[in-house]
Design brief:
The strands form 3 sheets. Strands 1-2-3-5-4 form a 5-stranded antiparallel sheet, with helices on one face. The chain has 10 helices and 9 strands. The chain starts with a helix and ends in an 8-residue tail after the last helix. With about 325 residues, it is an alpha+beta fold. About 45% of the residues lie in helices and about 15% in strands. The radius of gyration is 20 Å and the shape is globular. β4 and β5 form a beta hairpin.
Length: about 325
């Protein structure tokens, strides 16, 4: 509560709103209730000032172009990223206006909603190309330069078969020829939890903190992976479910942007990248000496799936 109280005081001092309540969502994101409406404050040094400035410039551009993203609120000093001191640490803060909509219950992710999600991702990538033509990107990393992709640094050496698979996936993707139509700025973490849906089925994308330069198809692989992992609730065949959600997302996407047949054929490869990525993150962030029974179960599930070369998606 001490942190929330300090943030409340800082927000009222730095931004042109009257905050009455601050609640922690994560250790970096705080929900802010103000007289003017609802907001979210991101407080982090996850990226440098230059990276965050470029990221916010990008998302504000997307907002102005009509994409469903959260706009930022400038401080009374006219800044979109503010340097603050919190608990004797220098840190960066960005304030976002809360996007309308809710996290849909699992069973409501139907073909219609997923097609609309695909359409918005296609629009995102089309606008990203426009943004990069107008404002060449110099501070946001290429995906493989981010620490989270240093798989062999975090996956234990004794897990030789998984390390070999991880290395092969990384090498294969790094050698795919890049061009403006298949590679550029994207969201990078489009889990269904980072998608809000309002009463008119309009979609808002939130949390661009992991935006990076990557193959566009990765932004399609992540929500497909997410839907297969979390939103299937039975009542049918999961293989057919995977095909149906992929078809819906792809149909929506192609209404706004095009990917070559050669790139579309690589979708299972990028889903495998996401799977190995998640497994590597467990080793990167979880305390191996204090793993819970649930964490052990999840890690073993991933180990078996990766080692057996399980195809997460059958096209």
């Amino acid at each position: 509560m001490i942190m929330e109280q300090k943030l409340l005081e800082l927000l009222n001092k730095i931004f042109p709103i009257h905050v009455t309540k601050v609640e922690s969502v994560t250790n970096e994101m705080y929900r802010c209730t103000a007289e003017e409406g609802n907001y979210f404050a991101r407080v982090t040094n996850y990226k440098s000032l230059d990276e965050q400035l470029e990221e916010v410039h990008y998302t504000n551009f997307l907002f102005k172009e009509g994409l469903g993203v959260s706009p930022t609120i400038r401080s009374i000093n006219g800044k979109i990223v503010e340097k603050i001191t919190l608990n004797n640490k220098n840190i960066l803060m960005v304030l976002y206006k809360a996007a309308p909509g809710i996290h849909l219950p699992r069973q409501q992710w139907n073909a219609s909603i997923l097609k609309e999600l695909g359409r918005q991702i296609g629009k995102l990538h089309r606008l990203s190309q426009k943004f990069e033509e107008m404002y060449p990107v110099s501070n946001i990393n290429d995906w493989h330069d981010n620490e989270e992709y240093a798989f062999l640094k975090y996956i234990p050496e004794e897990e030789s078969s998984i390390r070999e698979i991880a290395s092969d996936v990384l090498s294969t993707i790094k050698h795919i020829p890049k061009n403006k139509s298949n590679y550029g700025l994207l969201h990078g973490d489009l889990w269904l939890e980072n998608v809000l849906v309002d009463q008119e089925s309009k979609i808002k994308m939130v949390d661009f903190q992991d935006c990076e330069k990557h193959f566009y198809i990765f932004d399609l692989a992540v929500p497909i992976y997410s839907a297969l992992e979390y939103s299937f609730v039975g009542g049918g065949n999961i293989v057919e479910y995977g095909r149906s959600i992929t078809k819906a997302i792809m149909e929506g996407y192609e209404e706004e942007n095009k990917l070559s047949p050669e790139m579309l054929e690589k979708l299972p490869l990028f889903i495998k990248l996401k799977e190995v990525f998640e497994y590597s993150l467990m080793h990167m962030y979880w305390d191996k000496e204090k793993l819970t029974e649930e964490q052990i179960r999840i890690m073993n599930h991933f180990r078996m799936r990766i080692e057996c070369k399980h195809a997460f998606l059958n096209m």
